[in-house]
Structure formats: structure tokens, C-alpha cells
Amino acid sequence: MTEQLSTEKAWLMARTEGSARLWQTQPADMAAALPYFRATMTHFVALHGGILSTRQPACDGFTATFDRAADAVSCALYLQLTPLDPFDLCIGVHTSRTGTKRLRDIAHGGQTLISGTTASAVAGDLPAGATLKYLGSQRMGDAEPQERLLQLCHPGLRKYLQPLRMPNAVLAEILVN
């Protein structure tokens, strides 16, 4: 296994899909599941050498930084493989905070999206059984260049056939490429 060294930190941002609706329809289930969710998220981030941001409460999501992109990707995989019912995580991993937020926001519950920059940094250092599926290219932010967009795949994860949550113009560009 080859380790790619990078001077940039990797960001992992996660949000829970449909949490507002779940808090309204299943408040007791959500309240009961929240301590396990927080403990699991805190454990996996620490286990992979990440640092949790204290700016965002760990109720509807969280942000963590990692010194190595491979650690952020590995943490994302473990989080997605771990049952966190009723929480369903949408995860983005990138080397900029803005781009990571964009990836997180277009992902579906149970899906991890990774930027091409991050994918290059983890080449040859993916967790066992993990692969990356190319989904196209898009801008991660107004000031950022086009970036390859990849999905973290693993036999234990769901397969996605739904289009990503993007404006139609961006989605059309990805489908054409």
C-alpha cells in the first residue's frame, strides 16, 4: 500500500438526511438514538485521527478535519457501514471546507461523495474492499475549478441509481461527460 503525502488537510462533512421530518414524526426514537449517534461519530473520527469541529452540534451533522485524506475516507466508510438508525448520513470528503459542504449537500443518505483531488491523494490507500466510481465533474464552489466527482463504493454499502441533488444544468453536464 502506497501512502500519498499531502500538505492539505482533508475535510469530512456529514449531515443526516430527513432529520427535521424525523424529529417531527419520531421525536422519541430520535432522542433515544442521539447519544449512540454522537458516541459512534466521535469514536470513528478519533479512531482515524480526525478532529471534530466544535462549531456545529452533532445532532443534524458534523464536520471533522484529518491530516491525511485516506483517514477521512476510511472514517467515512466506517460511518456508512455502521447502523445508525434512524440517522442516514450524507457525507462529503474534500480538501476545502466549501467544496466538502457542496459534496455533502448533493449526496443522498448513505452516500459518500469524494472530490477528484481527494481521490488522487488516496490512490492505493483505500480501505479493504473500497472502490471509487467516477460520476462526472463539477465546480465545488464559485472560486474553485472543475473537480472530478467520485462515489465511495463498498460491497456493504447501498448502490445508488438516483441522480445527485444538483441543479439541472450541472446534472446535464455530468450526464453528458
UniProtKB/TrEMBL annotation:
Instruction: State the InterPro entries in the record.
Output: Nucleotide_cyclase
Protein name, as recorded: Adenylate/guanylate cyclase domain-containing protein
